[in-house]
Amino acid sequence: MINKILLPSFIVLLLLKIGALNFTNFNLFGDEAQYWLWSKDIDFGYFSKPPLLSWIIRVYTEILGSSFVSLKLLPSFVYLLIAWSIYNLLLNSGLNKKDSFTGCLIFLFIPAVSFSSFIISTDLFLLLFWTLSLNELIKIKSDQALKNFILLGIFLGLAFLSKYAAIYFVICLFVLILFDKRFRKIFFDNLLGFCLTFLCVFVIVLPNIIWNFNNDWITLEHTSDNANFGNIEIDLIRGLEFLLIQVLMLGPFMFLGGLFGFNKWSYIQKIFLIFSIPIILIVLIEAIIVRANANWAAPALISLFALLYIRINNSFLKMANYIFNFTFCFVLFVMIGTSYPSKIFDRVSGINDYALKIYSNSKGIIKNIVVSDRLLFSSLSFELRDKDINFYMPHKEGDEITNHFKIVSPLNKNINENFTLIGSPSDINYLENEYKVLKINSPDQKFTKRRLDIYEVVFE
User: What is the pTM of this model?
Assistant: First the structure.
């Protein structure tokens, strides 16, 4: 029954999503605009992330343009590739073609995919290359051909270029070697092959390593700051919320059906478990003692999905899982298409109107806008991309660099051209030329955590 309605249901939801993108009044989130902006300045690294997503956005926009709808369709294309990778992963795990195809369609329905298919993020290509890497690892279990080790290295290297969370794959691999005798034997019998794997990873990541070296390891410093272990505040409720979100993102009925499935735990299922539980535990601990975003454990969902799908064998729970996931997708897409006024959409609401008001206030005379906030800098740069405007970020030479725009678009201390300032006059107190600051009316701004005032800076 479910098999017959999955493909038509997916087509319905895909058309609904395309319609929602065309009718919504929502805008790109600041991080999405940031990745687009990075893509205009191709480099081997950026302040907070490795470069692969920006490279792909550059190629993608050269072909399909930089419109909101075009950019927002990018995640859907990537998830189709991830679903294809899930199909091959399930096939190599012992399922037949029919069950593997059903599995890849069910994957496209889980709430995590429905939600993140509207978000351009580094997780997209991390999940794609994570799945491809895991697939090669499964192949190595039965076939130690040299090409499988090389492909594992290539895919894992690309996963690192997508997001540094790919380090979880290496951690899980060593857990597998440590606790599984069969794989430990495969590892030591094929040391040369695994050395070749890590050599491929190193060669692919090397340009980004060199970029970090030339920029004082700024990305690694940012990553450690994100961990924020200097502000430990134990909160068990925060950990429980993290776990509940992971269950919701997979689908609660799939979780229950897979967790309590009656089939025995196979060797493949144990591998999937090892490539999910350590990640969940690491991020759970961080959630309890500091904080953690739900997507920080995203790679674990690939292995957990494959594990739960293989184990679920209850027809009622399968149908309940389909109904829940389809309803979640449908409601989410309708809310987006109707620009539903919910707090969860505040950060993507009203950005375009705000940008146009900023431009209108300048009367087209002021060609320079200085923005103190990273996300607002990105959003305004995207929304006003067709206007003749230069964007700058306040930064005094020698001060701490807190985002990429302080590296590539710093406001020069010797500037003598008038500009619009969005931030605080104290942000520009390092400027050397004499100027006057005039406060002007600020449009509504619910899409940022703190309100930023707007000033006109006029040089004397």
Answer: 0.93
- Return the pLDDT at 262: 58
Phi and psi angles of residue 371, each rounded to the nearest 5 degrees, phi first: -125, 130
The answer to whether 250 and 305 are in contact (CB under 8 A) is yes
| Residues facing residue 435 across a β-bridge | 459
Long-range contacts of 270-274 (CB under 8 A, 24+ apart): 270/180, 271/137, 271/138, 271/141, 271/176, 271/180, 271/183, 272/93, 272/303, 272/304, 272/306, 272/307, 272/310, 273/303, 273/307, 274/172, 274/175, 274/176, 274/179, 274/180
The length of the chain in residues reads 460
DSSP string, 170-234: HHHHHHHHHH-HHHHHHHHHTHHHHHHHHHHHHHHHHHHHHHHHHTTTHHHHHHHHHH-GGG---
Report d(CA 258, CA 305) in Å as an integer. Answer: 9
Query: How many helices (DSSP H) and strands (DSSP E) are in the chain?
Result: 21, 5
Q: Which of 252, 10, 231, 227 is nearest to 111 (CA)?
A: 252
- Collapsing DSSP to helix, strand or coil, 67 comes out as coil
* C-alpha Rg value of the chain to the nearest Å: 24
Q: By three-state DSSP, how is residue 313 classified?
A: coil
At 101 the pLDDT is: 93
> Do 8 and 20 touch, CB atoms closer than 8 A?
no
Q: Report CA-CA distances (Å) from 416 to 168, 345, 436.
A: 49, 39, 12
- Residue 357 CB neighbours (<10 A): 16
Task: Say what the pLDDT of residue 266 is.
Answer: 85
Question: Among 82, 93, 89, which Cα is nearest to 159's?
Answer: 82
Q: What is the pLDDT of residues 140-194, one digit of tens each?
A: 988 899 999 999 999 999 999 999 999 999 999 999 999 999 999 999 999 999 9
Q: Which residues of the chain have pLDDT under 50?
A: none
Could you give the C-alpha distances from 260 to 106, 109, 253, 302, 316, in angstroms and in order? 19, 21, 11, 19, 13
Q: Tell me 237's DSSP state.
A: H
Q: Which amino acid is residue 66, in one-letter code?
A: S
pLDDT at position 223: 62
Q: What is the pLDDT of residue 221?
A: 64
Chain Cα centroid distance, residue 12: 25
**Residue 126 burial (10 A CB sphere; 0-12, 13-18, 19+):** buried
Residue 220: per-residue pLDDT: 67
Other CB atoms within 10 Å distance of the CB of residue 182: 11
